[in-house]
Amino acid sequence: MVNQDPQPEVFDTVFTAINVNNTNILQNTVYTLQGHNEQFRLYAIGFDVVDNGDNDSTPNFVDFDITISAGPNNIPTSSFDGGFIMSSRERIVALSCPVLLNFKQPLQVKVENVSTSAGATNYDVIVRLIGETCILKR
Amino acid sequence: MANQNPQPEIYTTRHSFASGVAAGTQNIKTIYTNQSSSEEVRIYSLSVNCVNSGTGAASTATDFSVRIKIGNSYVPFQEFDLGVVQARDDRALTFPTPILVLFQQPISVEVNWKGGTGQATTLDPATDVKVSLNAELSLAEVCLPNGQMGFPKEIDQAIPRRSV
Question: Which residues numbered 58-117 in A keep a CB inside 8 Å of some CB on B?
Answer without folding.
Answer: 60-63, 65, 70, 73, 75-81, 83-85, 87-90, 93, 95-100, 114-117
